[in-house]
Amino acid sequence: MVRSSKTGEPRGVPLHSFLCDWLQPLVDRARLDEKPAFRSPRGAPYKAVQDGGGGLKSAINGARRRSGILDISPYTARHTVSTGLVVAGVHPHVKDQILGHAADDMSRRYTNVPQGPLIEAINKLPVPAPWRVIPWVSEPAKHWSRLAEGTGRRMDLEVRKHD
User: Fold this and answer.
1) Total of domains in the chain
2) Residue 124, domain member (yes or no)
3) What would the pLDDT profile of 104-136 be if each residue is shown by its tens digit?
4) How far does CA 117 lie from the centroid of its chain?
5) Domain span holding position 97
6) Cα–Cα 20 to 30 A to 153, which of 13, 22, 92, 124?
7) Which residues contact 62 (CB under 8 A, 6 or more apart)?
C-alpha cells in the first residue's frame, strides 16, 4: 500500500506473483523481527527523507555504478511494465490503474478495477527463466545478511604505503 500518492490518496499496488513469492520471506522476517522489510546492506532501515530518495536512492545509484548500467532508473521499469502490459493486451484502464496514472476523462475517473483483474493483468508479464535461478531470487533468506559486492569498505580509495 502506498500511503500517499500524487493525489494525496492512498492506493494499492498490484505485484506480479513472481515478486510476491520472492518478497514473502522478507515480509515474514519483518513481522518476526518487528522491523521494516526493506533494509540497507548493513541491516538498518532506510530513513525517510523529506524530498524523497535518501538511502534507497543511494542504493539504486550504487547498484547502477557497480553494474556499469548507468542508463537505467526506476522509471525505466515503469516504461517497461507499461509497454509489456500493452503488448500483452491489457485494457488501457487496467494498465493505467496498475501504473497509478491519474485518470483524464470522466469514464476513467469513475472506473475502479478490482484487485483480482489487476493482479491477473500484471501476471501477464513474462518472467525470464534465468531470473528464477539467480541465487538471491531462488533462496532470498540465504542472502539477507550478506553485503552486496561493492557496498563494504572502499579499499580503492586508501593510500597505499610501501614498506
Assistant:
1) 1
2) yes
3) 554 455 556 778 888 989 999 999 999 888 888
4) 21
5) 17-34+72-143
6) 22
7) 148, 150, 151
Beta bridge partners of 45: 39
Q: Which residues pair with 39 in a beta bridge?
A: 45
Handedness of CA 14, 20, 22, 26 (dihedral sign): positive
Residue 106's contacts (CB-CB under 8 Å, 6 or more residues apart) are none
* E runs forming strands in the chain: none
Residue 41 and residue 56 in contact, taking contact as beta carbons nearer than 8 Å: no
- Any domain includes 94: yes
pLDDT tens by residue, 24-83: 998 998 899 888 887 877 778 877 776 665 666 777 888 888 888 888 887 788 888 888
